[in-house]
C-alpha cells in the first residue's frame, strides 16, 4: 500500500472510531421513557365562558418584549360558543402522578378557573380530578383523582443539576399525548419578570403549548422540574424553556396538601438592585445585595432595626447576590422563624436578628377565592401601573382610610412611582378623591379626557409627596 493510501486509511479508521465513541456517549432515553412515561398524564378542563376571552400573558411588563413569555395552555372556544344555555371553553395541559393514591402535580394556570378537570392516563382511563390547592405565585397546583395503585414518579435534587446536563420532558404539546423531547440545562436560577419566588431552570428542551405542568427528568429518571414557561415570539418553541425546580415544587405541594395554601415569609422592606455605581458610592466591594429604599413601620424589619440605605447582603447565611434573591429567600422561610440578616451600613457589616412575618395571601392568587369574586389586582391601567388594595392592618398602621399599593410599573409609564408606593388621593381639577378600591381608581382614569393633568398623593415609606402626571393619552 502506498504511503498516501496508508495515511488515508488510518485517518478513516480514526474518524470512524471517534464517531462510534461519540455515539456511545449520547444518552439512550428509551428505558427512562418506558419506566416513567406511565406516570405522566394529559389534563383537560372546561369552564363556563362568563365574558369574552382576551388572550393575556401573565407577568407582562413590556408589551414588545415580555409578550414573548407565554403560558402554554391553548384555550379554544368549546362547542357551546354559539347560542346555547352553557357555553364552555376547553384547555389542555400536562401533569404527573406523585403518589399511587392519585395525587398529581401540574401548573396552577392549567387548572385555573376550571369548572371540571379531566385526567387521561396512559392506559386510556379518564378520571375526574379535584383541586387540593393552587399557588399562582409559583404556578403550582396539586390535584387528585379517585384511584389507587397508580404509577408515580421519583423526585431528584434540582440543586445538584449542572449546566450542560441532559434532561428530558414528557407531556402533551398541542394535545399530542406522551410526547418525549430532550435537551440540556442551559442555565440555573433564572429570574423572570414578576416571578420573584422561583429560581427557574432554563433548558433548550422543545416545549410547546400543552407541555405546561409536565415533568422534566434527569438521566436517572428523577423529576427535577415542572415545565412552566417559554420564551417565544410566535407562541411556539424557540429554544428557551423554563421549569420550576423540584425542591420548590415539593415544598409547595406539601403545604397545599396540608393546608390548601402556601405560607410565605415577609420582612416588610422595599428594595432595589445594587448597581456598580451604587456599590461604589456605598463603599461595597462589588455590586451585590438588595438596597433598602424604605422600611414598613411596625414590620419585622422595622423591629429588627433595618434602616433605609442598608444593603442586605445575606439572609440566614444565604448570600443575596441580586435584589431578586431576597424575596425568594424570605418567601421560602416559614413565618415565625427567628432569622439573621447581614447588612452593609456606613461602610461596615452588621448582623441583625428578626422574626419573620407572614406574607398576606394574594387574593388574586388564592385557590380558595369564591367563584365570581372580582380580582383585587388588574392589568396595567391607563397610566401604566398595576395597583392592589391594601389590608386593614396596613391602613391602621398608616392611619389612612384607604389607599392602593403599586405592585408593578410599566417601562412606558408616565407616573413617577415605584413598586411598594401607596397611592392615597387623586386630584383632578380641584377635586380630591380618596382612593379605596382598584375598580374606583381605574374607573376614574378611564373617564378622564385625553391630555388631562392629575396629581397623586404618594406614601413612600414614612414620606408623603405629590406626583403630577400630565398628557394622558389612550382614553379608556
Short description:
The chain is α+β, with helices and mostly antiparallel strands.
List the defining traits of the structure above.
globular, 476 residues
Outline the secondary-structure elements.
Elements: H1 3-25, H2 30-36, E1 40-48, H3 63-66, E2 69-71, E3 75-77, E4 88-97, E5 103-106, H4 108-111, E6 116-120, E7 126-135, E8 140-145, E9 154-155, E10 166-171, E11 179-192, E12 195-203, E13 215-217, E14 222-231, E15 241-245, H5 246-259, E16 265-266, E17 269-273, H6 276-281, E18 290-295, H7 300-304, E19 311-315, E20 318-319, H8 325-331, E21 338-345, E22 348-355, E23 357-358, E24 385-389, H9 392-398, E25 404-409, E26 422-428, E27 431-434, H10 438-447, E28 454-460, E29 463-469
Amino acid at each position: 500500500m502506498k504511503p498516501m493510501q496508508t495515511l488515508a486509511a488510518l485517518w478513516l479508521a480514526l474518524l470512524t472510531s471517534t464517531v462510534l465513541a461519540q455515539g456511545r456517549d449520547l444518552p439512550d432515553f428509551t428505558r427512562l421513557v418506558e419506566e416513567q412515561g406511565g406516570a405522566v398524564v394529559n389534563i383537560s378542563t372546561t369552564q363556563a365562558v362568563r365574558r369574552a376571552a382576551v388572550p393575556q400573558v401573565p407577568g407582562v411588563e413590556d408589551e414588545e418584549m415580555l409578550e414573548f413569555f407565554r403560558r402554554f395552555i391553548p384555550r379554544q372556544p368549546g362547542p357551546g360558543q354559539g347560542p346555547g344555555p352553557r357555553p364552555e371553553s376547553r384547555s389542555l395541559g400536562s401533569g404527573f402522578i406523585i403518589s399511587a393514591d392519585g395525587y398529581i402535580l401540574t401548573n396552577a394556570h392549567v387548572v385555573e378557573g376550571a369548572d371540571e378537570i379531566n385526567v387521561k392516563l396512559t392506559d386510556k382511563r379518564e378520571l375526574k380530578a379535584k383541586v387540593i390547592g393552587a399557588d399562582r405565585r409559583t404556578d403550582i397546583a396539586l390535584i387528585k383523582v379517585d384511584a389507587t395503585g397508580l404509577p408515580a414518579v421519583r423526585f431528584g435534587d434540582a440543586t445538584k443539576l449542572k449546566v450542560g446536563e441532559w434532561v428530558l420532558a414528557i407531556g402533551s404539546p398541542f394535545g399530542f399525548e406522551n410526547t418525549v423531547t430532550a435537551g440540556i440545562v442551559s442555565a440555573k436560577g433564572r429570574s423572570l419578570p414578576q416571578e420573584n419566588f422561583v429560581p427557574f431552570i432554563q433548558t433548550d428542551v422543545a416545549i410547546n403549548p400543552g407541555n405546561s405542568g409536565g415533568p422534566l427528568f434527569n438521566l436517572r429518571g428523577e423529576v427535577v422540574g415542572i415545565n412552566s414557561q417559554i420564551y417565544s415570539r410566535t407562541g411556539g418553541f424557540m429554544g428557551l424553556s423554563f421549569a420550576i425546580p423540584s425542591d420548590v415544587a415539593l415544598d409547595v405541594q406539601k403545604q397545599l396538601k396540608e393546608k390548601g395554601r402556601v405560607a410565605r415569609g415577609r420582612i416588610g422592606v422595599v428594595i432595589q438592585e445594587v448597581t456598580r455605581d451604587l456599590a461604589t458610592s456605598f463603599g461595597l466591594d462589588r455590586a451585590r445585595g438588595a438596597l433598602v429604599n424604605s422600611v414598613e413601620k411596625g414590620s419585622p424589619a422595622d423591629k429588627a432595626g433595618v434602616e433605609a440605605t442598608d444593603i442586605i447582603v445575606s439572609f440566614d447565611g444565604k448570600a443575596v447576590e441580586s435584589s431578586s434573591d431576597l424575596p425568594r429567600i424570605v418567601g421560602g422561610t416559614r413565618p415565625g422563624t427567628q432569622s439573621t440578616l447581614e447588612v452593609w451600613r456606613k461602610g461596615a457589616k452588621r448582623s441583625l436578628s428578626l422574626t419573620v412575618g407572614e406574607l398576606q395571601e394574594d387574593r388574586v392568587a388564592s385557590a380558595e377565592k369564591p367563584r365570581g369574586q372580582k380580582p383585587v389586582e388588574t392589568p396595567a391601567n391607563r397610566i401604566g401601573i398595576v395597583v392592589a388594595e391594601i389590608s386593614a392592618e396596613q391602613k391602621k398602621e398608616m392611619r389612612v382610610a384607604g389607599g392602593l399599593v403599586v405592585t408593578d410599573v410599566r417601562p412606558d409609564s408616565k407616573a413617577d412611582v415605584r413598586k411598594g408606593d401607596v397611592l392615597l388621593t387623586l386630584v383632578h381639577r380641584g377635586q380630591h378623591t380618596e382612593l379605596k378600591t382598584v375598580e374606583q381608581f381605574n374607573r376614574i382614569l378611564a373617564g378622564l379626557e385625553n391630555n388631562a393633568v392629575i396629581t397623586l398623593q404618594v406614601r413612600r415609606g414614612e414620606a408623603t409627596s405629590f406626583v403630577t402626571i400630565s398628557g394622558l393619552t389612550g382614553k379608556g
